[in-house]
Write a structure and sequence with these properties.
The chain is α/β, with parallel strands linked by helices. Helix content is about 55%, strand content about 15%. It folds into two domains: about 5-120, Resolvase, N-terminal catalytic domain (Rossmann fold), CATH 3.40.50; about 155-194. It has helices at about 20-30, 50-60, 80-90, 110-145, 155-165, 170-180, 180-190, and strands at about 5-10, 35-40, 65-70, 95-100, 105, 145, 150. A five-stranded mixed sheet has the order 2-1-3-4-5, with helices on both faces. It has a two-stranded antiparallel sheet with strand order 6-7.
Length: about 190
């Protein structure tokens, strides 16, 4: 008999997970599965540490169940990256997911296709965030503004560092010459593969 664990999550104390529980239990009954574990927590999906989800993942690694059933994808995380990472970690443990609201079963070909599609969108989200960050740094660099704890080097200074290194100057002499830290010189040269 298929062993299933359920995971329920609500974001605030004002909400309750009764609707999720009812749907999960009804679906388990329809499938004729055996509920062996139940995980429930009241915590925002944006929080990095969700103790019950971590306990579920740990139990999955120990092989305590074959499936995790949730009401909807958003219960597993607030971002595409969080959701796909959770599904991937479960699959690495040999555990499949069944998401009721979306009728997704990661054991079926359609469910595996969905997992692959969500992985693509997850990578797209990472790439878009990286691109936005690089554009923001470029704009700040053009203004000579701060990024983090230090000043960004202008493109002119970066070119000067490259030129001085090409002429054989040491990192320390370059740093003294352009008035920046040794780390900035190293990072600049590393970013252009020198």
């Amino acid at each position: 008999m298929t062993r299933v664990a359920t995971y329920r999550r609500v974001s605030t104390e004002k909400q309750n997970a009764d609707n999720q529980s009812e749907s999960l239990n009804k679906q388990i009954e329809i499938f004729g599965w055996n509920k062996v574990m139940d995980y429930s927590e009241t915590i925002s999906g944006t929080k990095d540490t969700r103790p019950e989800l971590q306990r579920l993942l740990s139990d999955a690694r120990l092989g305590k169940f074959d499936y995790v059933m949730v009401y909807e994808l958003s219960r597993l995380g607030r971002s595409t990256i969080q959701v796909i990472n959770t599904i991937h970690e479960l699959e690495q443990s040999g555990v499949h997911c069944f998401i009721i609201k979306n009728a997704i079963n990661t054991k079926t070909p359609q469910g595996r296709m969905f997992s692959q599609m969500i992985s693509i969108f997850s990578q797209l989200e990472i790439d878009l965030n990286k691109s936005r960050q690089q554009n923001a740094i470029k704009r700040l660099r053009e203004k000579g503004a701060k990024w983090g704890t230090g000043n960004l080097l202008t493109e002119e200074t970066r070119q000067k560092i490259l030129s001085l290194r090409t002429n054989g100057l040491s990192y320390r002499k370059i740093a003294n010459s352009v008035g920046c830290s040794l780390g900035s010189v190293q990072n600049t040269l590393k970013s252009v593969g020198v």
